[in-house]
Amino acid sequence: MRNVAFGQYYPTDSPIHKLDPRTKLFAGAISIAAAFVADSYWAYLACYAFLFIVILVSKIPVFQVLKTVKSIFAIILISVILNVFFHDEGKVLWAWWKIKITVGGLLYSGQIILRLMFLVLSTSLITLTSTPTELTDGLERFLTPLKYLRFPVHDVAIIMSIALRFIPTLMEETDKITMAQKARGAKFDVGGPLARAKALLPVLIPLFVSAFRRADELAFALDARCYNATEARTKMKVLRFGWRDLTATLCLALFLTVVIFLRLGFFGLL
């Protein structure tokens, strides 16, 4: 749990950190679009090359970003198993009953792994380079048109910001509870899946109690400070779209264009 990086802010003095949060949220949307547009290993090579350049510019250690992949290892494993055994395109390498392992299944599973990892790594960079306050302001400005439909934009932004802020806190709390239970003789790695699931109850119950207690304390703190979500609220830091954001937007547009061209085969690589 200590190795999960998603939701944590890594402070450095880099051009990526100085970008407007709206630009970073736009970059996250472009990354998601690129991950689903890409349909070849050449396209994923372009995605990871762009991602590696962004990590270098952000001055965040590569290992710090890669720790995020650990949180989706189970999802990656399940996706690989399903696609390897049930994707029956190409030459058959092994077959038993209705289960087959084909060349197409292996290649497709490799693309699924690259897609999931790229999605997690690219979106985790947003939280690593942005504070919860910045993400709240950026998300609120993005959703501003919904105010005309009486949508509670500010409330939703605050809720998402608090959720991101408490991800590392809850993980730290889980680690403390687990170590405390182990000190009392609890064993979490003994027995089958059912026994291990039952062994987690002494961790989950205190964790839920702690989470509700923190939520109650936060509600009292907001109420004591007379916090409200009226439209008359002002910002201490006003968001401004500068030359860095324009440069980043153009680079993102170029990146997505390259991925689209690779999908269409304009470079003769497919």
What does this structure look like?
This protein has 10 helices and 2 strands; from the N terminus they run H-H-H-H-E-E-H-H-H-H-H-H. It folds into 2 domains: 182 residues, no CATH class; 76 residues, no CATH class. It is 65% helix and 3% strand. A hairpin with a 2-residue loop joins strand 1 and strand 2. It is mainly α and 270 residues long. The protein is flat, with a radius of gyration of 22 Å.
Cα separation of the termini: 40 Å
Q: Please count the beta strands (DSSP E, at least 2 residues each).
A: 2
* Helix and strand element order: HHHHEEHHHHHH
Count of the separate structural domains: 2
- Share in β-strands: under 5%
**What strand order characterises the main sheet?**
1-2
Principal-axis shape? flat
Helical stretch count?
10
Structural class: mainly alpha
* Average of the residue pLDDT scores: 81
How large, in whole angstroms, is the Cα Rg? 22 Å
Low-confidence stretches: none
**Helix fraction by DSSP (H/I, runs of at least 4):** 55-70%
Largest β-sheet summary: 2 strands, antiparallel
